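User: Could you check the structure of this?
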Amino acid sequence: MTPDYYNTIEKPSVAEFKDRGSKFIAYAFPIADVNQFRENLAAIKKEHPKATHHCFAYRIGLDGNNFRVSDDGEPSGTAGRPILGQIDSKQVTNVLIIVVRYFGGTLLGVPGLINAYKTAAALALQVTPLVRKPVEVQYTLQFDYTIMNDVMTIVKQCDCAILEQEMQLFCRMQIAIPKNRLEEVLYKLNALQSLEMEKI
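Assistant: Sure, the predicted structure tokens are below.
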């Protein structure tokens, strides 16, 4: 069963870790999808074109299946996995961490690398507040303009988020309903005349 809430971060953060001359700069970002991951990675690569490595890990969603790790040229398993390990140990999702490495001339070895990437990722998560967000279920509503106020009252009272809306004579609205209030919201909306809803 999926939980009613999940933990994530709200703001990007940055932290730095140094070991024997090598510099590891960790960036944590809240992301909702793979496109946001690509945009953030491209921006960091642009910001640090001379860095030796741009390693990362992200986890999206609640089923545990949507994640990716990259060692970006570091020995296999020394960067991406330790970064993902920090995301998982904090039990957060919809999070991307990119760790940029500038090589300092001394090889750190496998244990040293694992420790450096793990520590940098942990520091980035320590400096940004973790937030608890409701798991939401998305619905499309179609209704007559005359019941607009009734619909808006339910949406506001039950902490639903409006994702998009078209307001004409016949209105269309896409909303995200907190999972723990789904039954209540659907019951109230069903009681309204001339309203159609469909789960997305």
